[in-house]
Design goal:
The chain is mainly beta. Helices cover 5% and strands 34% of the residues. The chain has one helix at residues 105-112, and strands at residues 11-12, 57-61, 64-65, 69-74, 85-92, 98-104, 126-129, 131-137, 143-149, 161-170. The relative contact order is 0.27.
């Protein structure tokens, strides 16, 4: 499985204050990094190709989101990244609805800063769900996936919600 991205995949929870590290998509490292993609050569499956870093990526977890919180994962960190297959399975414990949103980088940065009039990539997003599965080939671009329990699209309830998440990125078959 190929993952066309330049930097580490980062998981963000409301605990982290809804921030995805630096807004600058270029990353520096003190370890050798031949292709300057922000991923040290020792863990970079493609140390001479800045468009790719990992052969496979899988994120599993069961985050608990409180009203007004979200959890995000960087899918790509290169505007030139393209062709990976995004697959996610999401299941909410109980009947509380959440949103599974995919943003382009600029919209995500505004979202993190509190804007709620941002665009999402509807082709890869699912709104107001308690359970959903998606498998789509990503177009070229820099994307972030978010489990959203804010009032961006679906109003959160007063109680917290626990979500089972499995997200994978893979080469096209």
């Amino acid at each position: 499985m190929q993952q066309s991205r330049r930097a580490f995949v980062t998981v963000i929870a409301g605990i982290a204050g809804g921030c995805l590290g630096s807004r600058d998509s270029s990353r520096t490292t003190t370890a050798p990094d031949t292709d300057a993609d922000g991923v040290p050569d020792r863990v970079d499956d493609y140390p001479t190709d800045a468009r790719r870093a990992f052969e496979e990526f899988r994120a599993e977890g069961t985050p608990t989101l409180h009203p007004g919180q979200f959890s995000a994962i960087a899918l790509t960190n290169s505007p030139e990244a393209t062709g990976d297959v995004l697959h996610y399975d999401i299941a909410v414990e109980g009947d509380t609805k959440i949103d599974c949103l995919v943003f382009e980088r600029e919209a995500y940065d505004a979202y993190v800063d509190g804007a709620r009039d941002v665009s999402i990539v509807s082709e890869y997003s699912r709104i107001g769900v308690t359970e959903t599965t998606l498998t789509e080939t990503l177009d070229e671009g820099e994307y972030l996936f978010s489990l959203d329990y804010t009032d961006l699209l679906t109003e959160p309830r007063e109680q917290s919600v626990t979500v089972s998440r499995l997200l994978t990125l893979a080469d096209q078959p």
